[in-house]
Amino acid sequence: MASSTSFPASGSGSKKPLGKMAGWLRQALSKKPKEMPASQESHPSDVPPRCSQDHPPPPDPSSPGSPTLPPAQEGAPGSSSGRWSRDYDVCVCHSEEDLEAAQELVAYLEGSSASLRCFLQLRDSSPGGAIVSELCRALDSSHCRVLLITPGFLRDPWCRYQMLQALSQAPGAEGRIIPLLAGLARSAYPPELRFMYFVDGRGPDHGFHQVKEAILRYLQTLS
């Protein structure tokens, strides 16, 4: 005997919910994805943006804002000029009988606009100091050496010693030794100095201007 109880067909009760789900899925797929902001596209989250402060660009020396060192003040002790590495600019070597001419040369050099610092043996040597020691100290403490070559200079063995001592400390000349020939013919010029030019002491200023210019040229090479 057949039962009067009837069961709904399989899946008939889920047609309505499944239809709603399919409709929702179609709506979700039909929607366009939201566009990401430009800042997020250019800088993905796994790559951090570059910071300019980590690697600042080198300063441009031509730009107005670039720091510049102040120029060194020349003509004063403690400046960067090599002139002040020694006590004197020039040591004047002369014979005893030419002391007056040497004093005239020193007065000219010290009174010039360059205010050259000169060592004059009888004036600047330490009292009680040994003559040879004082000469060596003067040569070591001076940039240039002026040899006042006169007949008295050639006759004086002490002047010859000064000349040889100056040559031993500046064998290549390099403008440090400045011979000033006065009262002598060119043929009497010492053979030890034939490899360097001399200043002719004839003329209104006795060659003092040329001596000063030669000293200044050498001092400029030190700065």
From TrEMBL:
Residues 1-84 are annotated as: Disordered. It is found in: Cytoplasm; Cell membrane; Membrane. One of its GO terms (molecular function) is identical protein binding. One of its GO terms (biological process) is positive regulation of chemokine (C-X-C motif) ligand 2 production. One of its GO terms (cellular component) is cytoplasm. Residues 55-70 have a biased composition (Pro residues). Residues 1-14 have a biased composition (Low complexity). Coiled coil: none annotated. Pfam families: TIR_2 (PF13676). Residues 86-215 form the TIR domain. InterPro entries: TIR_dom, Tol-interleuk_rcpt_adapt_Tirap, Toll_tir_struct_dom_sf. Keywords: Cell membrane, Cytoplasm, Immunity, Inflammatory response, Innate immunity, Membrane. Homodimer. Adapter involved in the TLR2 and TLR4 signaling pathways in the innate immune response. This is Toll/interleukin-1 receptor domain-containing adapter protein. It comes from Molossus molossus.
